[in-house]
Structures are given as structure tokens and as C-alpha cells.
């Protein structure tokens, strides 16, 4: 099979669910899986911008347990389950400034969005994968899970670190039963969410967006490749990991950060 055929047919016959799949990295992953021939279901709180999207859309707020249950039931009834689950939902919408700015509500919300949404969805959809003895689960984490920045990502980093640990544990449990579980930790990606995050930080600091962007680059120790990632670059890694070519990969955490991470991982 040549590269062009692989792009079209690599996932033909597979059904994938992408959470938070209407924007940013999630949208890029959705587009890549569609190009590879998969049937793709996308879920998010808000309707997609496209009038007639090429994927199946189901609205759901995955921070709510009952919404997760409804989503899983609909997928089971309409599609018979999924072969690929991309837990991409996540957000860092919490106040900066360190521990004094974060209330219990902020901490609970950070865990609901960045950890428990994935835990609940895995719990709902994984059993059917185990019955078939096949499937792939990808947890989209963040380099923040191992490189917290106290002034801007404290709650988010803690939640992503917990996701990393949970993902590894689940991989160890599900692997012997034929289901691969992998973590992908993007660094700085050029998305709408990143732009909004930096804009808010710049506003709080009273500096320009360009100055705040450079400040963030400096704060994380610089990015050797000198730029943020395009979401499509992260999506390409995810595609490889869910494809048959990655059939011996499970339990790993892949960092895609332009060389930013300052230690040997």
C-alpha cells in the first residue's frame, strides 16, 4: 500500500469518537481520521461551524456524568460502539496568579474537564472494546502535566498530571485484553484556545499579545524549533498511533513540543 492509499484506506471500516472535535487539535484529528477512511463521531458542547459536516455530531457536555452516559448509549445504539476513542476534551480556563486565586470550585472544574470526563467515557465505552479484544484509546494531555507553571497553569497541570498516571494504569490493565491506551502531550499549539489564553494573560499583565507570547516562550525555556505547532502536526502523530503501524505501542506518553521539554523524558 503506498502513502496515498494509506491516507485514504488506513482506517477504513473503523469507527472513531473524538471529544472536543470541532476546534483546534480536536478538529485537526477529526479531519485526519476522516482522510484515513474512518467513520468519525464528534462530540462537543456547541454545534460545529459547518452546516453539513463530514462527521456525525452529537452535542454533549462531558463534564456532566449524565451527559457522558447519554452519549455512550447513543453511540452504542447507532454505531455499536467505537474502535478508536480520542479523549481530546480539556481546557485551561482557570485564573492565573497561583494558589491564592484558585477556589475549590476551580479545582473541581479542572478535574471534571481534564480528568474525569475521560475516565467516565473510558468506563462507558471500553467494555465493548474489551469484548472484541481490540481498540485504541488516546488521551490528549499536555506538557503542562510534567512542566507546571504556577502563575498560569496550576490547576490545569495538576489535572493533566493525574490524567497521565491514570492513562498509564489503564494501559497496563487493558493491554493484555487487546486494547492499546496511549497518551499524547502537546506543547504549544497554534489554536483559538491558545490565542484566547494568551490574550487574557496579556490583558492581565498590561502588555501586548506579542510580548506575552514571547514571555511564555521564555517561561518554558524556549522552543528549539522556534514556533508553535500547527494542530495538523499533532493530528498526524495521533493518526499514526491509532493506525495498525503502531500496533506494538501502548502505555507510552508522547511529547510533541518542538524540542521544548528541558529534561530527558
UniProtKB/TrEMBL annotation:
Belongs to the short-chain dehydrogenases/reductases (SDR) family. This is Short-chain dehydrogenase. PANTHER family: 3-OXOACYL-[ACYL-CARRIER-PROTEIN] REDUCTASE (PTHR42760:SF133), SHORT-CHAIN DEHYDROGENASES/REDUCTASES FAMILY MEMBER (PTHR42760). The lineage of its organism: Bacteria, Pseudomonadati, Bacteroidota, Sphingobacteriia, Sphingobacteriales. Keywords: Oxidoreductase. The keyword RNA-binding does not apply. GO terms for molecular function: oxidoreductase activity, acting on the CH-OH group of donors, NAD or NADP as acceptor. It comes from Mucilaginibacter pedocola.
Amino acid at each position: 500500500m503506498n502513502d496515498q492509499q494509506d491516507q485514504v484506506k488506513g482506517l477504513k471500516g473503523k469507527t472513531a469518537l473524538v471529544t472536543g472535535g470541532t476546534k483546534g487539535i480536536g478538529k485537526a484529528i477529526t479531519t485526519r481520521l476522516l482522510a484515513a477512511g474512518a467513520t468519525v463521531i464528534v462530540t462537543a458542547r456547541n454545534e460545529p461551524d459547518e452546516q453539513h459536516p463530514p462527521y456525525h455530531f452529537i452535542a454533549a457536555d462531558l463534564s456532566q456524568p449524565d451527559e457522558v452516559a447519554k452519549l455512550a448509549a447513543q453511540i452504542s445504539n447507532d454505531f455499536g460502539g467505537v474502535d478508536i476513542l480520542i479523549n481530546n476534551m480539556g481546557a485551561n480556563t482557570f485564573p492565573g496568579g497561583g494558589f491564592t486565586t484558585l477556589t475549590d470550585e476551580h479545582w473541581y472544574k479542572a478535574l471534571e474537564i481534564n480528568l474525569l470526563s475521560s475516565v467516565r467515557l473510558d468506563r462507558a465505552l471500553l467494555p465493548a472494546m474489551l469484548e472484541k479484544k481490540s481498540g485504541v484509546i488516546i488521551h490528549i494531555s499536555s506538557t503542562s502535566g510534567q512542566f507546571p507553571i504556577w502563575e498560569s497553569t496550576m490547576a490545569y497541570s495538576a489535572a493533566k498530571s493525574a490524567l497521565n498516571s491514570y492513562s498509564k494504569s489503564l494501559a497496563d490493565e487493558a493491554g493484555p485484553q487487546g486494547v492499546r491506551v496511549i497518551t499524547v502531550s502537546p506543547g504549544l499549539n497554534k489554536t483559538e484556545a491558545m490565542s484566547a489564553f494568551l490574550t487574557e494573560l496579556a490583558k492581565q499583565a498590561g502588555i501586548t499579545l506579542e510580548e506575552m507570547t514571547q514571555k511564555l516562550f521564555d517561561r518554558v525555556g524556549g522552543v528549539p524549533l522556534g514556533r508553535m505547532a500547527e494542530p495538523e502536526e499533532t493530528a498526524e502523530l495521533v493518526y499514526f498511533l491509532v493506525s495498525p503501524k503502531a500496533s506494538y505501542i501502548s502505555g507510552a506518553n508522547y511529547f510533541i513540543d518542538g524540542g521544548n521539554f528541558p529534561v530527558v523524558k
